[in-house]
Amino acid sequence: MRATYTALCEHGYADLTLRKIAADFEKSRGLVHYHYDSKDHLIVALLEYLSDRFSDRIQATADESPSDRLDTLIEWLAVGPSLDGVDGEAYHMAIFELRAQAPYNEALRSRLQENFSFLKTTCEEIIRDGIRQGQFRPVDVEMTTILLLSAVANARDLELALGEENAIETVLAALDHFIFPQLYATLGSDS
């Protein structure tokens, strides 16, 4: 999975081949072909692997306050993870390319939907925990989740696809200015 991830981030989806993946793999190319029939089959497995890694990172924050967990989640979505020596921007570009293929590839779309469903459920759970603990005001959890996730994802896509500099920075500032004051029960000087 690491070799697939590195090759995807380096070459992009369109230029990715099993041969290029095998070049980053310490074992034989035949082993890649033995386990995966096609590039798309391998990419779907990669998305499951990335989702599992994300789940592990989320579990590592379980003891933090809901506000800290939400901040961490938003930061991960905005900046991207640094995985296997690949920076967040390369990660986001790779995922952006895969999303562009999803309308034409049912297996890819299904896996991306599963990953988004996990992300959405995670964000909803964090907000519900915050409401129960009195850190967040009672809000429409689904609506707030979709707003947060969509704002960050669309800003990131504007930067990637259109080169709109500072879109992420602007959206994060807007969330701080317009959304979080409505969500947080109290905003102290350290918020």
UniProtKB/TrEMBL annotation:
Record's keyword terms, sorted: DNA-binding, Transcription, Transcription regulation
Keyword Transcription: yes
Molecular functions (GO terms): DNA-binding transcription factor activity; transcription cis-regulatory region binding
Pfam families, per database record: TetR_N
SUPFAM superfamilies reported for this sequence: Homeodomain-like, Tetracyclin repressor-like, C-terminal domain
Domain HTH tetR-type: 1-54
Classification via InterPro entries: Homeodomain-like_sf (IPR009057), HTH-type_TetR-like_transc_reg (IPR050109), HTH_TetR (IPR001647), Tet_transcr_reg_TetR-rel_C_sf (IPR036271)
DNA bind region: 17-36
Domain of life: Archaea
Protein name: HTH tetR-type domain-containing protein
